[in-house]
Please model this.
Amino acid sequence: MRKTSKRFKNLKEQQKREKVETLEKKIEIVKKLSNTKFVESIDLSFKLNLKKIKTSEAALRTIIELPNGSGKKMKVAVLCDDNKLTDAKKSGAEVYGSEDLIKKISEGQINFDKLICTSSMMPKLGKLGKILGPKGLMPNPKLGTVTDDIINTVSKIKNKIVEIKNDKDGNVGLSIGRKSFPTSKILENLKAVFQNLKKDKPMIFNAENVKNLYLSGTMSPSFKLNFKDVSL
Model:
């Protein structure tokens, strides 16, 4: 049986004493309770009621551009033709290459969090699907990772874009900022997630299908959110 630490028990007691009247107040308290020595992420998590969603629509996988970014450091790799390597270097990508990068990936040298690929190089990635696919690293046009605009794409992925997807049980989790962010920026990011998902995935992301909606710090107690309150 998992034991609850003394620190966490104290945080739960503090949480009970707080008066929560608004969404802004919940964010403030989540930040207050995030008292570890590192700067915690502020995370949004929810569960989809897959039983109420048609099987063909039960996969929630998309990207959202957060107005203020998530604050999470992302190590990006770019696979491109030799004539695009200069752009890849200028983009700020930590890893970039052409045939040499394909060879490294085939040997299991994967030291990046996201892989961007130019359209001309995609056919050469087919043989690496078994390596990249299980790790969620296979470039996908729908997720913005297949592009010829390397510089802008790397910048967005590093600073703005977050990927959202559910697991087999319908659980979804993403970071919408850091404790160091002003409350207003976290709130703006939170509402951007709702507005985008409601617009792009209305059959999945709605008050009927989304349950167990919570906001928390990386290592702090969570606050339950009301779908309708965030949707306003």
Notes: The mean pLDDT is 88.
